[in-house]
Specification:
The chain has five helices and no strands. By secondary structure, the chain is mostly helical.
């Protein structure tokens, strides 16, 4: 299993995304940010401008990133041989806002991604 290290060269900085662990990290963080955008859109829709444009824009973006996260989680779970429990937690993390980012931090600290970079 490859250890996680900070990238030093430009090639290393670009290559972390080529791993399933790096792709999972990117998907988890992007999904969390899309939650932020969706919540901001909901705030605009129901509190500020009473116009659904924020939700109409961020809803589909969040939906696509949600599916990408699920696929990335299943892929890395299979490749890294996560237990059924850890896999279920990864999938459940897609539901509450920002939980994908917390789960990503948790598996990264435990060396369960096999590739990618530590932050």
């Amino acid at each position: 299993m490859e250890t996680l290290k900070e990238p030093n060269s430009p090639q290393q900085k670009a290559s972390w995304i080529a791993t399933s662990g790096g792709q999972f990290r990117l998907a988890a963080i992007a999904e969390a940010w899309s939650w932020a955008g969706l919540l901001a859109g909901m705030f605009l829709k129901y509190v500020v401008i009473l116009n659904p444009i924020g939700v109409q824009v961020m809803g589909p973006i969040h939906g696509v990133l949600f599916v990408i996260y699920i696929v990335a989680a299943l892929r890395v779970a299979y490749e890294q041989k996560w237990s059924g429990f850890v896999t279920l937690v990864a999938l459940a993390a897609a539901v509450p806002p920002f939980a994908t980012w917390l789960f990503e931090r948790w598996v990264l600290k435990r060396g369960m991604l096999g590739g990618g970079t530590s932050s």
